[in-house]
Amino acid sequence: MPLSYGGDPQILKSPNPQILKSFRSSLRILPSVWQPNSRQWWLIWPLAIFVLLAWPAENGSLAVKGVRWLADPRGTLPHLPAPLAMELDDNADAVAEHDAQEAEYYRVTASSGWARTRLRLKDVNDPFDPATQRQVIVGIALIGVLLVWKIGGDDLTQNIPS
What we know:
Layout lengths: L16 H13 L8 H17 L7 H10 L20 H20 L1 H10 L7 H23 L10
Helix pairs in contact: 2-6, 3-5, 4-5
């Protein structure tokens, strides 16, 4: 059985009343820790999940990475090649390879609407610059914290022992 007070189980069996009184008074402190009510949890969980999914990393947020993976889980969709560099204009092999990649991309694009959607989703990016995105997410989280606080109302003083 796990002990929530973090102490020795022999304390509970101790005949010394001073030890038991000290133990009981230390347990009285625990109820003063704030516990969210059920309405507050309904805001805390979605807010935490949103922050987790939207927080930007080097190559996109977790939500964007998930969308990219769902669009192309095996990595089989072609990429639209970058424009051919000027110095490769005279290289016939490079031009032929570039044209073949471009032809494959446009062949998949023309095949169906679902394929076009998958190609678009594969290349999706976060809507903002990462620094701006972090500021927006922190702002949304702060508004959420204030809403959790407001929803709680006077409940915060109920857990404090008198």
